[in-house]
Write a structure and sequence with these properties.
37% helix, 6-stranded antiparallel beta sheet, alpha+beta
């Protein structure tokens, strides 16, 4: 009887865990599924970066406009397409200086993203969107294009409207805006 109980306990312990073969098989299946999903996940994160960058530029336009109105000075959202950077400046004693806050830092586009500008103002070598104390803005467009060619625009159609994020449609290599919905 003792021998039967001991044998039964041994069989019971063996049934409680997984064998090495079962664990290896589970890891192979999991690795295969992840390998198939990885390319689409890469596209998801690239798309997410475009949305995040567009949201950041939109937030800077909203801040610049409200600060220009409340402080009674001109603000600019500056762009350097070669360096792939953008930053805010405010007019101080006749010249434009970087803000002394976290919003005054230089922001850099993600590695695989391209920025195109339409209808922005230019002063010597600088390109910018201007925000005046009267609440008017430069009616321009900042287009962000990811490595797959998908684009988002931060755009303002008229000088009295606010900027918004628009997903443009592409036809014949040109983008035409349509409102996100």
């Amino acid at each position: 009887m003792d021998q039967y109980i001991n044998t039964h306990k041994i069989h019971q312990r063996r049934d409680e865990g997984f064998t090495l073969l079962e664990l290896i098989l589970a890891m192979v299946i999991l690795s295969t599924v992840l390998a198939m999903a990885a390319p689409s996940l890469r596209g998801f994160f690239a798309s997410r970066q475009t949305h995040d960058t567009a949201a950041q530029i939109l937030a800077l336009t909203q801040l610049a406009r409200s600060q220009a109105i409340s402080q009674g000075i001109v603000y600019r959202l500056n762009f350097d397409t070669r360096q792939r950077t953008y930053w805010l400046t405010a007019q101080q004693a006749g010249s434009f200086e970087k803000l002394q806050t976290g919003f005054g830092q230089i922001f850099t586009l993600p590695k695989d993203m391209v920025m195109e500008l339409e209808a922005v103002e230019e002063d010597d070598t600088e390109m910018f969107l201007a925000f005046t104390p009267q609440g008017t803005v430069t009616a321009g467009t900042v287009r962000l294009i990811d490595r797959r060619g998908r684009a988002l625009e931060v755009t303002c159609p008229t000088v009295t409207e606010s900027f918004s994020i628009v997903e443009p449609e592409q036809s014949n290599g040109k983008y035409t805006s349509r409102q996100n919905g």
